[in-house]
Amino acid sequence: MLNINNLHASVEDNEILKGLSLEVLPGEVHAIMGPNGSGKSTLAGVLAGKEDYEISEGTITFKGVDLTEMAPEERAREGLFLAFQYPVELPGVSTMQFMKTAVNSMRVHRGLPEMNVAEFIKQMREKADFVHLDHDLMRRAVNEGFSGGEKKRAEIFQMAMLDPQLAVLDETDSGLDIDALRIVADGVNKLRDEERSFVIITHYQRLLNFIVPDYVHILLDGRIVKSGGPELALEMEDKGYDWIKEENGAELVA
Amino acid sequence: MSMISSEKTPDLYNNALEEYDRVFSGDGAPRPFAELRRRGRDAFELLGIPTKKHESWKYTDIRKVLPSGATFEGQTDLRITPEDVATHAIPRLDTRTIVVVNGVFRPSLSNLTDLGNVIITSLRNAKDSHADKLKEHFGRYADVNESSFVALNSAFDLDGVFLCVPDGAIVERPIRILHVVDAETESVIQGRHLFVFGKNSQARIIESHEARSGDVNTFGNHVTEIVVGQDAVIDHYRIENEGDNAAQVNTTQVIQKDRSVFSTVTFTFASGLIRNDVTVVADGEFCESNLGGLYIARGGQHVDNHTLVDHVKPGCNSNELYKGVIYDQATGVFNGKVMVRREAQQTNAYQQSQGVVLSDDADHYSKPELEIYADDVKCSHGSTTGEIDPDALFYCRARGISLDDARSILLYAFAHDVVEQVKLEPLRDWLDARIGERLD
Fold first, then answer.
1. Dihedrals φ, ψ of A77, to 5°?
2. Shortest Cα distance from A5 to chain B (angstroms)?
């Protein structure tokens, strides 16, 4: 599904990712944990195609195709979804219209006819219920005036609508109370199947109580320094990041 | 010292004087507005045509679009047919329509039935039939000494529309005024209108500017005086779409009496160089004045919106929102002045101007001005000019929406904000469709 090999990426000549490698197979859920500044959001941005990042070395393939050559919208149409850490407010753009354009862009790309209005509205309602999103919010402008929790739930709603093959969740848990966290996790779990893969980027372990990953990776200073099963997340929760930093201390100082 | 010189005032000036002498050479035609005409001519000779050195014309070189050797005549050959008028109908909007061709009111093309006691006639007719109203209002607000173009306009006995809504009348149907320019040769077209809204009256006015002149350069110079009586509620819309070869100076001079509400929104689509001068004088207590504008400029278009909200009396509110989308080598200008006079305590005045610039060669100038002489007032203004928010673009693209579609969606939303101020739903829909086409 996703294959990242020795990825080096920088922003404004500042190297953030320093040789990151990761392989995600269909149906797998990978959690990437790391402290602030370890490169988590850079990884999300690079995968989605944000232009601020420069890739100097390494490769990323998605379903066997070089991802770095693709425009952000092509990546999305091929089935890559990024749930934003900070969803953008689009004043005046109705959620209905936005989702309709997005859904139909995907469908046209996949050779499907545009979704008819009745079916579209039905889907909107179903998927909104999925994450307990008030139907009134659907009539409002995209993310405008949404609370932090509503924005995060709206991201999962969008994910459900767009039906991606690989979803990257960039700190979707940040700023959520426990109820909202459970709702978001619920939404994600309902979308899990043997075809769809997830990369869950998080600072804390708590989301992983609800979305149990197949693999946990620790990202430190732009590289994955440790990988393991779900138990690694618990270990991180107990011990914090310092012991990992110490383990890798020599390299970090260098 | 005289302010005029042949260098500063190009051919239009001499043309105008020649034309003036010809029109008023004593052929016995009626001269209803001789006094205004004389004042207009004197002021025009003194003021001349403004250059970019004039502060209020800093960003707009009007002289480059003034036609040389153009005819001044309002050509009223009967090319415009009822079918032409019908093509400009707005779907689902049931209006009565006043048709004005080259500045002249054309009753035979107009549909004015079922308007109750609303008076719609030509200014010259009104001089006789409604002498008191004309004496009280006509030429009283648009000051010939303040504007060359008001002076030029006033120097001719123009015969535009006199619209009067009597005290207490509520006009249910919106009144559309369709201004059509129809010229076969390079022309100067002038229109002059007076709208008087009585106490407690309510009306919605939609002015549309269209043309069927094709490639011929035209220069329009229009002056409309609007009187909003006590407690009157008036919505006014202006939609400009005369085409790339039509330059225009459009002066709208409004006076508001106590507790009246006046709202005006100007939409500028296809045009050449266009200058809108909107002045609202809140000359009564507790008035509300709302001014809006949307301009989508492409190619070599130049749109200059100039507003003045003049708070004279206490307790008034004013709101302004102007937005521009500037493509290609086009230029947008917003120059909005808010004046709060000493007596105008407890004034609330807000102003917003936003420009989106879509090419390196496009320009947008925004110049807010506040002049406050009262001490208990709330005034604010905001002005932004920039590109489309890159984060918003990326967010759309990350959802599979192409860059072009993302731009359209975001610009449409930006523009729609102004459309929201339009209270007639069919007009909103129609405007949204025009905006959609224009942004494509």
1. -70, -30
2. 23
